[in-house]
């Protein structure tokens, strides 16, 4: 029996590939998230079909009180799924900084731990995933003791036997990496860009409040670059006016090839700020990638490293004023 824990749609897509690649026959699949929209449900249902048992636990982490309530809810919701007396053959996780994930893995026994990509946070050297600090403030220590949380970022990195990654040739949280392909060579050949002369531009969205970009300024950026479609971030809740949405229950990486073939596209341009998709679709033929960088993002140490990786991968980075 194996346990796989996910917190995002991309993680679920990677988990699906891991199950297939490793021919995992017996899997308990758990999703822990504060979002439960169509995209989350779509991938939860897909992976659940490959699992022996599955649970989607919706949490609320808006404040400390809600975080405690969510911890209690999580502990009770998984009691009927996870056998504390059972030793799981493999435990697969991505969000190694999540106290919710740490709660689950602290409550069970397993023979082997495996990690897989959460996103670009895995390949940014100064991200929290590379932090060696174990110290917690008093309130956090009391909180962790109350719920019996023993795992942490460092213990996961030390225990992980292998890390499954969609980012080839880039340093990750442990040295022993196993490549996971989101696209097979056959898919890329079968759904290659068609010789029609048609070029389409897509802007892949991000949570604007997190990067301090207003809706008006984003629309101005999209219009000034003659971008055709807007693909929203899975956690977006605000509907942006004056843009043409791509509406789908799939995440961008999973949707892209069918979009290309269905619309008879020869060339595709993907625009964004610092979305992971620039790295996950970069090997598809005739796709041009562009990352926009504001002054605020350039000054952010965390985001600066992402743009450094983009440049290393020969992805165009444009500095803009918004």
Which tags fit this structure?
322 residues, alpha/beta, seven-stranded parallel beta sheet, 36% helix, 12 strands
Q: What value does the average pLDDT take?
A: 87
> Could you state the order of secondary-structure elements as H and E?
EHEHEHEHEHHEEHEHHEHEHEHHE
How many strands, which pairing sense, and closed or not: the largest β-sheet? 7 strands, parallel
The number of E-state strands comes to: 12
Which term fits the overall shape?
globular
Rg computed from alpha carbons, rounded to a whole number of angstroms? 20 Å
Describe this protein's structure.
The protein is an alpha/beta fold and 322 residues long. It has 13 helices and twelve strands. It has helices at residues 9-21, 38-48, 64-79, 99-106, 138-146, 153-159, 185-190, 208-211, 215-224, 252-262, 277-280, 295-299, 301-312, and strands spanning 2-6, 27-33, 53-58, 87-93, 109-116, 160-165, 177-179, 199-204, 229-231, 267-272, 287-293, 316-319. Helix 1 packs parallel to helix 2. The longest helix has 16 residues, at 64-79. The protein starts with a strand and ends with a strand. The model has no long low-confidence stretch (mean pLDDT 87).
Write the layout of secondary structure elements.
Elements: E1 2-6, H1 9-21, E2 27-33, H2 38-48, E3 53-58, H3 64-79, E4 87-93, H4 99-106, E5 109-116, H5 138-146, H6 153-159, E6 160-165, E7 177-179, H7 185-190, E8 199-204, H8 208-211, H9 215-224, E9 229-231, H10 252-262, E10 267-272, H11 277-280, E11 287-293, H12 295-299, H13 301-312, E12 316-319
Parallel strand pairs: 1-2, 1-4, 2-3, 4-5, 5-6, 6-7, 8-9, 8-10, 10-11, 11-12
């Amino acid at each position: 029996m194996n346990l796989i824990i996910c917190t995002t749609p991309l993680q679920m897509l990677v988990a699906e590939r891991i199950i297939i690649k490793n021919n995992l026959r017996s899997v308990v699949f758990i999703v822990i998230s504060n979002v439960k929209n169509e995209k989350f449900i779509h991938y939860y249902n897909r992976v659940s079909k490959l699992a022996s048992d599955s649970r989607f636990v919706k949490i609320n982490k808006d404040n400390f009180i809600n975080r405690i309530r969510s911890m209690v809810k999580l502990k009770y919701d998984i009691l009927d799924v996870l056998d504390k007396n059972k030793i799981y053959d493999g435990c697969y996780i991505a969000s190694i900084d999540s106290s919710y994930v740490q709660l689950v893995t602290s409550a069970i026994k397993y023979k082997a731990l495996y990690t897989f990509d959460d996103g670009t946070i895995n390949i940014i050297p100064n991200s929290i995933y590379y932090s060696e600090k174990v110290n917690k403030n008093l309130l956090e220590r009391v909180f962790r003791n109350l719920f019996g949380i023993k795992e942490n970022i460092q213990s996961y990195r030390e225990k992980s036997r292998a890390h499954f990654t969609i980012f080839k040739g880039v340093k990750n949280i442990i040295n022993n990496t196993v490549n996971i392909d989101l696209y097979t060579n056959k898919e890329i050949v079968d759904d290659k860009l068609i010789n029609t002369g048609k070029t389409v531009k897509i802007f892949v969205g991000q949570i604007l409040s997190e990067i301090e970009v207003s809706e008006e300024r984003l629309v101005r950026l999209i219009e000034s670059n003659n971008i055709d479609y807007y693909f929203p971030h899975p956690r977006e809740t605000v509907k942006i006016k004056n843009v043409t949405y791509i509406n789908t229950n799939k995440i961008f990486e999973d949707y892209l090839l069918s979009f290309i073939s269905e619309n008879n596209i020869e060339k595709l341009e993907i625009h964004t700020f610092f979305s992971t998709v620039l790295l996950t679709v970069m090997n598809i033929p005739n796709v041009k990638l562009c990352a926009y960088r504001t002054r605020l993002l350039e000054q952010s140490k965390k985001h600066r490293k992402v743009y450094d990786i983009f440049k290393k991968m020969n992805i165009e980075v444009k500095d803009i004023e918004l």
